[in-house]
């Protein structure tokens, strides 16, 4: 039987243990997303459990030992000198078959211009004979109380048998369709198309393939675009399955190159597997003649092909490599900058737009000024009821989509406006007191933020009469402005 022997075993854990902690390179972002530890090199000797620990957010390393008593928790002490002085508390509980580790730690990050202290705790268990690094996922207690959500990982990575089935790679090809309409280039444009579904039985992953250029360009059958669950999911993680494929209409040859991942035997040693395959498709074709009246199409024949049943494609195993421990379910770092939570803590600002005064009623649009906004748009805010005993303050009536619970909008607010409301007048001052929520790190436990903003409208107003009432707006209808949020507080 073929065995999957990795080309290279990841040395990330060992290397990390030999380098100095780095509190400047992503310390804050990693502390919010992966407050966690790796426990490694565990030894059980004469009722003493010893192990090394690595904090994955800050690369802190230490060696610990615990004098154990069966059936109860035993405190651990640091042996030698840890890499830095971040306080670490550790306990272990050992029974007949397993050991449970409990870790608590406090550390500080200042890489983002604002010093933040993190407190986290977590626990995890493993069999006494488990020799791989053990991941302990932590929950943060400060500066926010969350348990960060990890990714689901690529399809089927932890399904039982993924690794074993990958030793002899194969795929099932189904829903195969090939179209060839030659055309004459005058009255009829030549057209080719090819579609199929590829299923990998090792992990159950399905990808639909179509020609590159299918969306508005010239279809290219030699370069098929193949996508699966990762096309619609934000929870795949950092390692999506990748599929490259091609079809040669002259020989009816379909070729495939796919990379997938398995960690069903040991999540600390995830495998990246690449395999290739090629086969001649047994196509059955129907033909027809173009229906145009133009004589130039008389010698052309359209061809429509498919297969009678799904096709089995046997593959050739290529490279197999071990990637870093537990990588498949680690969350994806934002490539576009900070999201809701980090923005709200480090640099909270509102972006205002579409300011308007209709008679005496003020309205505007607003959104939290984040780098990673995704597809979210500003929400309209309308002037609600005057708040009693609070001069000039009005309740916000949040636009129709405000009930959708999207995080970059106020969930509740009030505002007041003082200044110009007429033609050619300078814009005034808008004050906003708002409450908003962030949930991208922990959907089940959103963080509620509160803050106050004073925003100066540095532009003039232009007015028109609508139904006998003055309607004034910023002279430049596309005018936007940004204002800091002060006195920010947060909690559950």
Automatic annotation (TrEMBL):
Signal sequence coordinates: 1-17
Keyword Signal in record: yes
Keywords assigned by UniProt, alphabetized: Signal
Protein name: Ig-like domain-containing protein
Source organism of the structure: Parathielavia appendiculata
